[in-house]
Each structure stands twice: as structure tokens, then as C-alpha cells.
Amino acid sequence: MQFMGLQYRDKVRWRQMSCLQRTEFLERCQAYDDELRLFGYLQGTACVPTVRNAITIRNHHGQPSVQDGPLTEGNEQLMRIVILEAFDLNHAIALLSKHPLLWDGVFELHPVELTTQDNFSLSPRLIGEPR
What we know:
CATH architecture: 2-Layer Sandwich
Strand content: 25-35%
Order of helices and strands: EHHEEEEHE
Number of strands: 6
Radius of gyration: 17 Å
Shape: flat
Strand order of the largest sheet: 2-5-1-6
Number of domains: 1
Largest sheet: 4 strands, antiparallel
Distance between the termini: 15 Å
Structural class: alpha+beta
């Protein structure tokens, strides 16, 4: 099964860390990512360097409405998106539970089905439902 993990970090805690602490922390995260890649669990990542450049697009009375900033504001900042291959949800939880990022943040985990198609399915269903 494949999962999308949204990694968030605590903005306040991150600002309080020294440059050396940040470097050491990121090195531990990178080492664990390398281990996940080596065993075939980590399929890909996308970094989100800052939410200052985020844009939110909504439908407002049938017209697109564009707003500066992320959808939600909070103490946690979206840091990265990961694609994880795991046997099942419990396995994915076990893999991410060991990640150093948990010291400074959280993971939001979603089962996903990656496709090579550019269009949406005409019959939406929940992940895990029979076809």
C-alpha cells in the first residue's frame, strides 16, 4: 500500500533551535530517510521550504477566489510531503513512528493510490474499497 505523509514542524520550536541544532536535527532526519529509501519504503519526497509563498484557491460563487497564504494557520508548518510504501497502515505507522521529525513535529498520514493518469476517476471511491 502507498501512503502520503504530510510532515509538519513546530514553528516556534524550530526558531528557538541554534543553527548547529538545526543542522544536527536535519542530518538525523536525512539518515533515517536514507534508511527508508534503502529498504524501498520511501518512494519520494517534496519539500515545502516556506508557507509564505502558499496560495489558497477556492470556488466563490462559481468563480475562482485566490487568497495569499495556506489553508490553515497554526503552530505547525508544512515541511514536506512523502510517499511511503508499506505493507499496511500499521506498518506505515511503525515506520514513521521512528522518524526523528517526531521530536519537532507531526506526521499526517493518508492512504493513497498513485496513478499515471492525468484525469480523475469517474467513479470516486474510498481507498481500500473494492473496485
